[in-house]
Amino acid sequence: MKNKWSVFTASLLTIAVLSTPVWAADKKTEKEDPADTYEMLNLFGEVLERTKTSYVEDVTDKKLIESAINGMLVSLDPHSSYLDEQSFKYMNEQTKGKFGGLGIEVTMENGVVKVVSPIDDTPASKAGLKPGDYITHIDGEQVVGMSLNDAVDKMRGKVGTKVKLTVRRANNPKPIEVTLKREEIKIQSVKSQIKEDDVIYIRITSFSEDVDKNIEKDFNKLKKQIKGKPAGIVLDVRNNPGGLLDQAVNVSDLFLDKGEIVSTRSKNEEDTVKYTATEGDIAQGLPIVVLVNDGSASASEIVAGALQDHKRAILMGEKTFGKGSVQTVIPLGKHGAMRLTTARYYTPSGRSIQATGIVPDVEVKPAKVEEIDKGVNFSEAEFGNALKNENQKANTGKAKKQDDELKKDYQLSRAVDMVKALSIYAAGTK
């Protein structure tokens, strides 16, 4: 990371804003006449002055100029924008895993705010907001006509205060109204535990600072708790909106021995940067299943794409969000910062997943599983004169502990089953 500029794979603000990039094909720009540029700058000055003197209400130069700068940047693509001092401060807090707000990642689509993903254990998540929901009103005020930054500002507020959102959801004709209490959001970026049959489960909620170190620490800790060799790993990046590029690279590197992880390419070919893996796979070849869905974006897609291209993991779930651009945040002294889209990123095989997403190897939709009542059945052991099994004592062992989370989460249950199957297959081929 460079000293003054921070490179992000997602736009992060108070309520964790993630805007969907819309990139047009590169075109060669014609040389502009400097005289024309000066003429347009004179036009800007004239519009500024006329607005100040003739607008129906008093308005400051600061507001007009900041709005003009932001308008210039957002016209390029929804990721580029101007951050005033407060927004810049919020963004820096979030990359450190702590910020105030609702805990919701959003973008602007069709004039309304679209939910990319709610962050685990936040007001948005507890209120039941889902990826793909559309926020049409904020405290009764219509979102259509607002900029993304305006909508974000209205959802921000003092910790403990409430905000009412009106939400439209696919396949639900009636609007849904939810009231959320703003909280100080402290993101636990990595959560891990041992699932049934010694499967290590690692959940990554965002790619903030030190995620790679926390994953390695948790993995080694859980590995020691397992007697014998772990069956494998489930890496869960569902509803993970992204974060820091270097963390996406470092997390991929944990499970790769060599090869390219991702490349970033700007309009100048000489500025292409390739990130490669260093020797050492902390899992030492254990089977890995990566869980993804339509809320997996940006840095999550870098990790998923790298492990998929290197055949290091099986991707399971749903197609990812499709954010394939990199933003550079450039501080502007006391005036905040500008966030500018500076490059696209490509997976090791050369894929750009911009606006297309990554298709999982095994598609699994969220589902509810219920056991079928099969009536009364008898087994051989229940007959009074059945022959005894001479090995019965040796095979009694411990009963399997059922994981309640696996019963509720069909995708996770399938991922754990896949890891177990791969582990059994690997053991049988030795």
Features:
Pdz3 Domain, alpha+beta, six-stranded antiparallel beta sheet, 2-enoyl-CoA Hydratase, Chain A, domain 1
Written account of the structure:
The chain is of the alpha+beta class. The chain has 2 domains: 101-186, Roll (Pdz3 Domain); 190-326 and 340-390 and 398-430, Alpha-Beta Complex (2-enoyl-CoA Hydratase, Chain A, domain 1). It has 11 helices and 20 strands. The protein has helices spanning 34-54, 61-74, 85-95, 123-126, 148-155, 211-225, 245-254, 299-309, 392-395, 404-408, 410-428, and strands spanning 6-8, 81-83, 98-101, 104-109, 112-118, 134-138, 141-142, 162-169, 172-181, 183-186, 190-195, 199-204, 232-236, 260-265, 273-276, 288-292, 314-317, 325-331, 337-346, 362-363. Strands 1, 2, 14, 15, 18 and 19 form a 6-stranded antiparallel β-sheet that branches. Strands 4, 5, 6, 7, 8 and 9 form a 6-stranded antiparallel β-sheet that branches. Strands 11-12-13-16-17-20 form a 6-stranded mixed β-sheet, sandwiched between helices. β14 (260-265) and β15 (273-276) form a beta hairpin. The radius of gyration is 25 Å and the shape is globular. 39% of the residues are buried.
Itemize the secondary structure elements and their pairings.
Layout: E1 6-8, H1 34-54, H2 61-74, E2 81-83, H3 85-95, E3 98-101, E4 104-109, E5 112-118, H4 123-126, E6 134-138, E7 141-142, H5 148-155, E8 162-169, E9 172-181, E10 183-186, E11 190-195, E12 199-204, H6 211-225, E13 232-236, H7 245-254, E14 260-265, E15 273-276, E16 288-292, H8 299-309, E17 314-317, E18 325-331, E19 337-346, E20 362-363, H9 392-395, H10 404-408, H11 410-428
Parallel strand pairs: 12-13, 13-16, 16-17, 17-20
Antiparallel strand pairs: 1-18, 2-19, 3-10, 4-5, 5-6, 6-7, 6-8, 8-9, 11-12, 14-15, 14-19, 18-19
